[in-house]
Amino acid sequence: MFKANLLYSDEEYVYKKPKIIGDNVFDDLKVTKIFEFCAPLNFDSISSKDIKYTIEILKNPCQLKKDILYRQEIFRKFLSKESKESGNLVNNLYNALKEVNVLQKIRETYDFNYGGEHDIEYLKAVNYIFFIKSYKLYVDNIYSAINSSVVKFDEDETPENSGLRNFFSQIELEKNMLDSSEITEPVDKFLSYLKDKKNITGELKTQNGVFTTLNFDTDAKNIKSTYPQKIPLFDLIRNVEDYLGIYRQEYEIKEKGKSFQNDNDELYTPEKYTNFEKHFILQLIYDEETQNETSFAPLIKKIIEIHDNIDITYFLTVFDEIKFYRTICKIINIMSENTENSVCYPDVYEDDILRAKLNFTEVFDPIVAVQKLAEYQEKHNTSNLPDRKISDVIPNDVSFDQKNVFVITGPNNGGKTAFVRAVGISLIFFGAGAPVFSKTASFTVGLNIHSHFTANETHLQESGRLQDEINRLNAIIEKSDNLSFIILNETFAGTNSIKALSLFEDFLREMEKINFMCIYVTHFHNIAFYVEDQQDNPQRLPVYSKCDNLIAYMDDMPNSANAGRTYRILSMKPSDTSYSKDIVTKHNLSWEQLKANLKIAGNR
Length: 604
Hints:
Elements: H1 23-29, H2 31-38, H3 48-58, H4 65-79, H5 81-85, H6 89-97, H7 100-108, H8 117-147, H9 163-179, H10 181-193, E1 200-205, E2 211-216, E3 224-225, H11 232-236, H12 240-251, H13 275-292, H14 297-308, H15 313-338, E4 347-349, E5 358-363, H16 366-379, E6 396-399, E7 405-409, H17 416-431, E8 440-444, E9 448-453, H18 462-478, E10 484-489, H19 497-514, E11 517-521, H20 525-535, E12 547-555, E13 564-570, H21 580-586, H22 591-598
Parallel strand pairs: 4-8, 7-11, 7-12, 9-10, 10-11
Antiparallel strand pairs: 1-2, 2-3, 5-6, 5-8, 12-13
Helix pairs in contact: 2-16, 3-15, 4-15, 6-8, 6-15, 7-8, 8-9, 8-13, 8-14, 10-14, 19-20
């Protein structure tokens, strides 16, 4: 029986610490925006159902190193140069696997509740033969999709239980089973009895009780009948295999698109299979038994047994899992082929090391990348992607080897939020075993992500808004452990700078107890200055040794009118004059804003 799992390395996997990334994290980081942009591009579009399934996988990060490596191996095969040159293995496999829904429909239409037990078995056997033949064709198509690609499974380099190799081995076993004489011989023998039947005459009782004599010949032109209705059966049947063609019109896997219609242009489907046709097939079988003085019963029992031992439920699961790989592969291909930024497979560490690892070099925000690509399409009025790779998506570095908390300050629109998005989205992709959006990376498996962005409820009083933010942050802390990564964006915005610093210190004390990691984006520069001052203070709280500042760097600093945003996030000392214009503008305190609000006439 076929069994495969493309998400976990073990059939019976167990999470050490089950974790789920919250919906708010995906909303805060705008993760779905990546999928919405990439979905319609090129010929292999991804559907909303594919995206929904993929996001559900992303929300459940792997908790075992071997599961991360298992998925990484699958992605390497799907994204390899050889796979792309041979027709894109993930798409070929997706197209072959999706026919499992057709196969399921075939199976569902083959249960009869007509006649005696003996008749039912005979009718089932005829229909089950088609299911067996369809299933064999289905497995052959999947086998061909993998085998025809240039993907090789080197025993010296590829672990025996890794990704696609394990899946391919399962398919190979299933194919060999279906090709074995134990299955092919009963099917071929049954069909051989009914081939080349000519001039069959029989009295068949119709559904309305009318007796009709049929003179059946292999040449459809010679068919004559007193039956009052035109039956498509007459135009199709020459033997039992032709009879099976009735089902091929809508459900046959390999030759999709063919259809047979009657004079009234009505598609003939298995649901319209009448008692008349049932009688006809039974008559064929009974005549053959009489002429050869034999019984089909033992052969029919064997065919039913073969049918009942085929389990297609695993394919339904595997098809869903391929949706995940195909969707992620599409995004990775678009990023790597249309931007000058790098993607990589992170180094993976177990959580038994001294402290959790979280390091990036040249991490970039895929949201900025898709925005740049969308701007190109809009500017050039095209649905195509640019001929040349875009080069203005700025990457950054960050390492938590020595520090647990980074306070990020700098000008508005200087790249702070894009930076935390870049880190957060790559962590989400890492948890799914996918490539991440950076040149190099190293993480501890089992990292969980939490985000706390400033509340937008402007109707709340400031005190109510602040309390809401504190409550949400406390809820995050309660769910956190030493493998948690928390993104704070403009938290405590509902208060003044003095109170915000006090609340930040309370947060640091909780961090020291739990030892989680955090990036805190804030417009309160006094917090950045305080963190900097504490580095040289011998009386400082121990927790400040785990804190550092990151600054959204501007060229021509500190106060030039031509200062430009570089979107580089650097470890440096904060400046009290660097961003004064941005700060007063953010709070509607510039002279122009005050003049407009107070309707002051005259010049400054």
